[in-house]
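My current task is to audit a protein record that another person submitted. I need someone to confirm that the token line plausibly describes how this chain folds. Take the sequence as given and treat only the tokens as open to question. This is what I was given:
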Amino acid sequence: MSPTEIHQRLQDQHGDAITAFEADALDPFVLIKSDSIVEVCRFLHDDPDLAFDCLTNMSGVDFLKEDYIQVVLHLYSYTHRHAIVVKANVSREEPSMPSVEAVWKAANWLEREIYDLLGVVFTGHSDLRRLLMPEDWVGHPLRKDFVEPEEYHGISTRRESLLK
């Protein structure tokens, strides 16, 4: 199924949740409302004609100037050999959206990574805690306005540039 056909199926089933579609992108994508993520993903997973059984990647992008964080899901169907990217935007001030862990178990660690590095809270997640940074780390290092502290527990975080 082509990305355009996948978009049409989504539009027919979840029209109000779909806010944009870009067929000509390197990786064609559908932009959806973040509060509809579980319903849309459940449909993408369970519909026999779509059967997106694999969440190949899930990441986040900080759009500082536009004041939102975008959560990006790369989906693939081994049954039908087709792919689509699903994107959802959340506010930088209160970054929160429902977890898709119940749809794809792989989302467990991927959502934890996004939470840890960008601060997006995935409601309904079974174990949302830091994955890469220490539990007492302040801030989220992949935010574009993140300022690295001078030290962490008495250990300097400064290092000489390797590019000299």
About this structure: The two ends are 50 Å apart (CA to CA).
